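Example S7 (structure tokens).
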């Protein structure tokens, strides 16, 4: 601990938002190690608050079994955070830090918390939490609360500041001086070569590399301790540097009444995944608007009629063509119709084109109601941030979801909040918005903004697909997505899912959908790669095929896996990392687990046989399996004929899962095989193709 009255004035480091990110980020890959799995804790002990006075300085200490934080009020009544320790007593700060600083968007200090004076402070000891409330003079009055919980492993801070401190262009910030051994981290087996000319550096036929550094987490790989930071506000931002951890909450002009978000800190020990999992659980339980919502099978006409290398045409999208195809789409299990670009009369004219939709949306509305399909649509300009326009579409079309194909900002958020006052379950999703260069350079706007789903960097993924593999296949004048092997594109998607779920551990972030492949003349093995990748990556289960164009074996395969998707989707909305980052050579995978049960999708992209160690797989910290309980494995690679595998002693797992070249395995973990199979068969029995009264 550093005594605050002996510490120098804190040095504030707030990164320039306009500065480009380094070609190779500062973060370091973490050496992999496997500790024996442990049951997630649900209680962190009764938190306590104590105080003592030494040489005129008062030290206030809050502690439980997760953390210990010390705050010092010096002789001049200035207050600083003097110490943050893990449950094992490891110190994470190298110097005292002010509780608060107000900065402008260039990082200039407007209010210096080191100069604030404590007027009074109050301890609060409750059964579920302990809290210290500091009433400060800056000279304006403000309040700072620090709280530890019994059932939550984080330090929570709340600020009540003067209104003018929340003016546009300002941010409330806290900059902690961390020990130098705490460094930003990237995923295991990190890719570090970065970009050249806007494209990832390619190393070999099916391998690419790029940087995905966690903005929330710093870690000491030798001491195996770390610190996670998060600002739970629409304007929240975290930036980790060696020796500095900055948290900021930027003022949001269109949301003037928005309070300062909670500033949260998770000290932790053990594998780096421990900190990551705590943050992800917090977001999922307290903020994710996807909480409790299952994904749907949706169909998008863009992939079928407009996804070529030429500019997409509106003329091909007509009510007549949609009414013709939708019964066949419904027959293969579609639950949601996404009407993409082409319904509008013209750029910025958000009426149904009277020539292509002579009766408006009414005939389609009746058809969708007949088949029980949800409806969502596409907009790509500022009209989508007008609540009256969106509300009118809801009334006239039964719209349940809106796709903002544009960069969203706080105006969009304000509009969607206004829409939800009348339609509380209305959903939205967007493109590109995790990229600070494409949207705001601060990042928490997305999961806290009622945006239900975010596609990560989709335009970039399309471009990447063009350079993999080195020798594009097919006629370049034909379909845009025919120019590469599906396996190469699938590798891009799986690796993106791995890294994006690390960099932004929000349930809403997904890689771009892969629905363009089903109507093409591909082998079933290659199409299977797309299906398994879609399930592994937790990608949007959205397709664009015309069922009448599919070969019988492809159609049967698709409906079998659609039945599995519907039976397993309570698990498929989750994502846990397993195995190293996909590299196109070694096996990779992803898990979808809830309370110790679920599925793991394994992929062997290499040309040789491979094995996946059960110890490496089941001891993955993110799975949080109970080591006192046996693990029952089953093989769902053929979803209508699953196979029971061995029961594994998790304390000493032996054996491996063998994989053929270019193969996939779907492994059930503690799944009730009989009940799940009955549900898969029940879902499959609902799929009747061709639909009654039609001709295939």
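Recovered sequence:
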């Amino acid at each position: 601990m550093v005594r605050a009255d002996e510490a120098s004035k804190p040095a504030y480091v707030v990164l320039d938002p306009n500065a480009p990110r380094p070609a190779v980020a500062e973060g370091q890959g973490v050496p992999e190690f496997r500790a024996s799995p442990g049951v997630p804790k649900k209680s962190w002990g009764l938190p306590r608050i104590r105080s003592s006075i030494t040489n005129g300085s008062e030290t206030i200490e809050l502690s439980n079994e997760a953390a210990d934080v010390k705050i010092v009020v010096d002789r001049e009544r200035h207050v600083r955070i003097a110490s943050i320790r893990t449950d094992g007593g490891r110190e994470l700060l190298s110097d005292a830090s002010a509780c608060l600083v107000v900065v402008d968007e260039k990082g200039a200090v407007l209010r210096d918390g080191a100069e604030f004076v404590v007027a009074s402070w109050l301890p609060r000891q409750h059964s579920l939490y302990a809290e210290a409330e500091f009433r400060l003079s800056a000279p304006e009055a403000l309040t700072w609360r620090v709280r530890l919980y019994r059932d939550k492993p984080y330090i929570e801070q709340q600020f009540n500041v003067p209104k003018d401190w929340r003016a546009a262009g300002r941010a409330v910030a806290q900059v902690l001086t961390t020990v130098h051994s705490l460094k930003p981290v990237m995923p295991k087996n990190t890719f570090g070569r970065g970009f050249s000319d806007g494209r990832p550096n390619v190393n070999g036929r099916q391998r690419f590399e790029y940087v995905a550094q966690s903005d929330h987490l710093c870690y000491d790989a030798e001491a195996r301790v770390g610190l996670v930071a998060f600002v739970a506000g629409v304007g929240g931002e975290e930036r980790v540097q060696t020796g500095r951890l900055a948290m900021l909450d930027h003022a949001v002009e269109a949301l003037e009444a928005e309070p300062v978000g909670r500033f949260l800190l998770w000290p932790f020990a053990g594998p780096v995944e421990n900190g990551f999992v705590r943050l992800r659980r917090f977001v999922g339980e307290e903020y994710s608007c996807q909480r409790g919502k299952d994904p749907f099978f949706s169909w998008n006409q863009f992939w079928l009629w407009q996804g070529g290398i030429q500019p997409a045409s509106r003329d091909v999208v007509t009510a007549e063509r949609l009414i013709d195809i939708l019964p066949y789409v419904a027959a293969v299990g579609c639950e949601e119709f996404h009407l993409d670009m082409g319904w509008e009369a013209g750029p910025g004219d958000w009426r149904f084109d009277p020539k292509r939709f002579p009766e408006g949306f009414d005939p389609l509305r009746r058809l969708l109601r007949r088949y029980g399909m949800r409806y969502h649509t596409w907009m790509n300009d500022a009209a989508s941030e007008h609540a009256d326009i969106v509300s009118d579409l809801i009334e006239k079309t039964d719209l349940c979801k809106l796709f903002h194909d544009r960069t969203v900002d706080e105006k969009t958020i304000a509009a969607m909040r206004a829409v939800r006052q009348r339609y509380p379950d209305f959903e939205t999703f967007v493109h590109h918005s995790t990229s600070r260069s494409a949207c705001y350079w601060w990042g928490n706007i997305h999961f806290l903004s009622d945006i239900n789903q975010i596609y990560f960097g989709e335009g970039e993924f399309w471009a990447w697909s063009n350079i993999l593999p080195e020798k594009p296949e097919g006629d370049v004048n034909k379909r845009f997505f025919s120019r590469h092997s599906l396996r190469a594109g699938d590798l891009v998607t799986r690796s993106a899912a791995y890294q994006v779920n690390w960099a932004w551990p929000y349930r809403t972030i997904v890689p771009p959908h892969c629905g363009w492949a089903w109507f093409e003349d591909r082998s079933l093995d290659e199409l299977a790669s797309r299906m398994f990748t879609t399930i592994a990556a937790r990608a949007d289960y959205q397709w664009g095929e015309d069922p009448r164009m599919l070969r019988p074996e492809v159609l049967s395969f698709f409906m079998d896996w659609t039945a599995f998707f519907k039976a397993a989707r309570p698990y498929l909305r989750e994502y846990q990392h397993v195995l190293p980052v996909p590299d196109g050579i070694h096996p990779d995978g992803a898990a979808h687990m809830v309370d110790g049960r679920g599925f793991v999708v394994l992929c062997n992209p290499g040309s040789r046989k491979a094995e996946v160690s059960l110890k490496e797989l089941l001891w993955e910290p993110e799975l949080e399996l109970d080591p006192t309980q046996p693990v029952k494995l089953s093989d769902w690679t053929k979803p209508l004929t699953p196979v029971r595998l061995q029961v594994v002693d998790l304390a000493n797992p032996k054996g491996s899962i063998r994989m053929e070249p270019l193969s996939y395995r779907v492994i059930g973990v503690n799944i009730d095989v009989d009940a799940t199979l009955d549900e898969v068969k029940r879902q499959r029995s609902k799929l009747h193709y061709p639909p009654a009264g039609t001709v295939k």
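Notes on this example. The two ends are 75 Å apart (CA to CA).
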